[in-house]
Amino acid sequence: MEPLSSSELKALAAWPTPAICNAIETFNIRPRNQGSMLGIKCIFPDFGPMVGYAATATMTAYLPATDRDRNATAAHWDNIRKTPAPRVAVIHDLDHPQAIGSLWGEVNGNIHKALGCLGVVTDGGVRDVDEVHALGFHFFAADVIPSHAYVHIVDSGIPVKVGGVVVNNGDLIHADKHGVAVIPHEIAREVAAACQKVEDRERKIINFCKSPGFNVDGLKELMKSL
Fold first, then answer.
1. Topology annotation, domain 38-183
2. What band does 21 get if pLDDT is binned at 50, 70 and 90?
3. pTM of full prediction above 0.90
4. What residue ranges do the domains of the chain occupy?
5. Distance (Å, whole) CA 88 – CA 37
6. pLDDT tens digits for 168-215?
């Protein structure tokens, strides 16, 4: 799919991730229990929404890198540069569910920001949270851990499963303090407008509930009309 324009990306970033999920549901393009990650925490909830294209990879920290693995980091960097901007690193930790070492700290935060990444989504661990927060680089992770152990990239540009969601290289990611979701390419240009439609509907309910004239019969009639 043709990447979204900066204005289209900005329109998506104006909405929180729950609103994005609500809007996606209206298209009936996937089951409602798919597309949003579980167990992936926002480490910097004071940051606004992150919207970008996934640059995928796998990593491990359990054993030292092999000769094959030594070129994997450079291949990962090359893949990031081939992925449409803005980019989000989406990394599956092969040691999951027990993260042993973190790929993500001040050094890789700076490297990936220089490569055009807004942040990382990983089912592994992150560290150096004060330094990375100051950098303005988003961390979405399963945990915060202290060591990098034997961490290294294994493969890049392949489908990865993070937080129960299969993410393909180039998928559109939307994430904020609530969590992480994937926006289907087929509807990406329509999602921001759909967010507004859902908001308009919900606002009628909320306003009525806050009004002096609130009553259950009126709520039932309002719900029938929406």
1. Glucose Oxidase; domain 1 (3.50.30)
2. very high
3. yes
4. 38-183, 197-225
5. 15
6. 999 999 999 999 999 999 999 999 999 999 999 999 999 999 999 999
